[in-house]
Each structure stands twice: as C-alpha cells, then as structure tokens.
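Translate sequence into structure tokens.
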Amino acid sequence: MDALLFDGPARAPLTLVLAHGAGAPMDSRFMNDVARGIAADGFRVARFEFPYMHARREGKRRPPDAPSVLRRTWLDVIGGVAGKSGPSSVAIGGKSMGGRIASMVADEAGVAGLVCFGYPFHPPGQPEKLRVAHLEDLKTPTLIVQGERDQFGTKDEIPRYSLSEKIRILYLPDGDHSFRPRAASGRTEKQNVDEAIAQASAFLRRLAGA
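Result follows.
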C-alpha cells in the first residue's frame, strides 16, 4: 500500500478514507478542501491514490487501472487503515470514480458507511449506460452529495433510478460535477463545497453515534 495522506485527530471517533476521481490526484484542490474541512469537524481523514495515479507522479502517463485493480486497492487500503479496530471503525468514499469503486466494495468490506461526492451514475451524454445495478441492494449506510446539474446524473434523472433505501442523496444548488454553480444562480462554489463538508460531517457523526 502506497503512502497515505492523513488529516484530523488520530483518536477520532471514526476515520473517513477517501479516493480521488479519475483525472485528479488525492491532493487536488477539491480533495484538499473536503478532507481538511471534515478533519476540522473532528474526524480522521485518510487519502490514497490508485496505482495509475501514483505512476503519473513518476511521469508515467496511464489510464485508470482495471476495475479489479481498483477494487483490490480499495480493499487493501481499508484493511491497512482499519487495522486491529476492524472495518466498522472506518467509513469510505471519494470523488466521482473513487466513490463509485468504494460503493462496489463497501458491503464486502463491512465498513460503517459510504460518502460519495459527485457519483457518476452514467457517462456524460449517455444516460442509458447506468452504473446503478449494485446500488439497488446496497446495505451500507450511504450519503451521495450531488450537484443538481451534474452531467453524470442530474436531480431530474436520479429519482427514476431504483436505489437502496440505505442511500440518501443531497443535492447542491445549481452545482455541476465539481459542485460549481453558474454565476447567475447567486450561489458560489465555496458555498456548495462547504455544504458538502457539513453534510458529510453530520452523516459521520450519526454513524459514530456522536
């Protein structure tokens, strides 16, 4: 397992493990803002990178790893972070692809919860290619924070999907896949990111029984 990036107190009631999206690393501005914001609310946050992204840091341009590699990496990281405390001591999630793969291993790993920021319900412009089959019977308590205008799944589209009752979806006003709203909306990107952090922290508090 490659090096992890930690934020927040070591003895927090719960650790949130986050994975990056397909195109940006674990220390992108979005990942930094979210991790540090949740850590400031009293939680431990761990970040990691999939093998292909780690290779990019060494100058090797690679596409995302095969799904089997992404899943195996997630399971290895969960085991490493949880340690003797067990998987129930951690929640997992991430941005876009990172959150999607987390959702595919959450039940198997037995984690406490799942937090997805901008879930890719389908490829942009291809609403018929849904990525929701495994979400229909998901048993892990889940929060999905989604921009209303997200081209990977909008507020108008998502209610049509058959999703597990364990999934709660929070929509950010006029947000796109990165939670950025249009200037005419009167909303700012910072407001949406701050709301995403606040909702994620509240969700983690409920999981931790705090």
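Note: Strands lie at 5-7, 15-19, 44-48, 90-95, 113-117, 142-147, 167-172.
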